[in-house]
Amino acid sequence: MSGALERTPLHLLLDRHPCVGDFLGALGLDAGDGQRPLGDWLRHLPDEELFDAGMAREQMLAHIQRLIGEVEDMARASRPLRSLTLLGGRDKSGQAENVELEVRAGEVVCIVGPTGSGKSRLLADIECLAQGDTPTGRRILLDGQPPGDERRYAPDRKLVAQLSQNMNFVVDLSVRDFITLHARCRMVADVEGMAEQVIACANGLTGEKFSPEVSVTQLSGGQTRALMIADAALLSASPVVLIDEIENAGVDRKRALRLLSGGDKIVLISTHDPLLALRGDRRLVIRNGGIAEVITTGDGERDNLERLETLDGLLMDVRDRLRRGLRIEDRLEWPH
Questions:
Q1: Which residues face 174 on adjacent strands?
Q2: Do residues 110 and 301 lie in contact, with contact meaning Cβ atoms separated by under 8 Å?
Q3: Which of 56, 154, 285, 290 places its Cα 20 to 30 Å from the Cα of 131?
Q4: Residue 260's closest CA among 273, 279, 274?
Q5: Which keywords does this chain's UniProt record carry (predicted)?
Q6: pLDDT score at 1
Q7: What is the DSSP string of 229-262?
Q8: Bigger pLDDT: 159 or 154?
């Protein structure tokens, strides 16, 4: 590529790759009328300007080439993911799953099954974008195509964000500083505004609100999960979000699900909670380590969900009263 790059007129290069113009401008270098090829422009660049830039001509050419490649990689990684397809493998007995499931952006799929049935293994297969190289033999396609190694293993452009049951921070930053740092890494236009939005959203999901100035290491389990859900929904570039048992975190499940599904992300949730399972568009039933059934949530189930949500609201009210030290002595009126 370097030969073709050297022969490219500078004005075309700056037009196709604005990052090159930003780079030269940061070094105080003048591209002139831009009619010269890049290689010729570099050869005529005065030595004192190269000295001020701290680079030799060959280094500058290599840096420009690398910069173009990195920006193009970022652009490819940021293209919207329209679908994720799960190609079945085998269960613990070696029986084929016979499943080909396409999940489209904006969908929520719940994973249900007894403890130890293989729900977390399925999430792990999706998280690593398995290509028949895990114990289940499953394969994952992105927009109908197998992901290349650069998409599977790039640490700075992960396609899948996973929120596990146990999450701990290893940095001692305030919540504001932590989210602000992530926003800067994502190069959002309004860093402070985005940080405030994420924190406000997280406080709307958790029962006990927290200050933006508190250290992330001092957050409770529920507060940590709420912060990471808000971050994944509003700030993370990962188009796929995996959640393992959100019901155990004291998070407003209905609001969290609405938040995640409203951002054109592909969401898969492992759960034992009937309310969460029925809120999903579909649910995968796991038995003996394999996908035994794929169920689309029906109209009757949606009707029953409304009744269950009414009952859940009453239970949440009782829980809140107990947390505040109130007594529960009056007769409770349950819906019929």
A1: 215
A2: no
A3: 285
A4: 279
A5: ATP-binding, Cell membrane, Membrane, Nucleotide-binding, Transport
A6: 47
A7: HHHHHHT---SEEEEE-GGGGTB-HHHHHHHHHT
A8: 159
Q: Which of 177, 247, 175, 189 is nearest to 217 (CA)?
A: 175
**In this predicted model, which residue has the larger pLDDT, 50 or 287?**
287
Which burial class, exposed, middle or buried, applies to 198 when counting CB atoms under 10 A from its CB (0-12, 13-18, 19+)?
buried
What is the C-alpha to C-alpha distance for residues 161 and 132, in angstroms, rounded to an integer?
A: 21
DSSP string, 146-182: PPPHHHHH-TTS-SEEEE-SS----S--BHHHHHHHH
At position 227, the amino acid (one-letter code) is L
116-145 pLDDT, tens per residue? Answer: 999 999 999 999 999 999 999 999 999 999
Burial of 140 per CB tally in 10 Å (0-12, 13-18, 19+):
buried
Full 3-state SS string of 75-137: HHHCCCCCEEEEECCECCCCCECCCEEEEECCCEEEEECCCCCCHHHHHHHHHCCCECCCCCC
Per-residue confidence (pLDDT) for residue 267, from 0 to 100: 92
Global pTM reads 0.72
What are the CB-based long-range contacts (under 8 Å, 24+) for 178-184?
A: 178/216, 179/227, 179/231, 179/235, 182/231, 182/235, 183/235
Torsion sign across C-alpha atoms 190, 197, 247, 323? positive
Closest C-alpha among 251, 244, 231 to residue 169:
231
Q: Would you call 281 helix, strand, or coil by DSSP?
A: coil
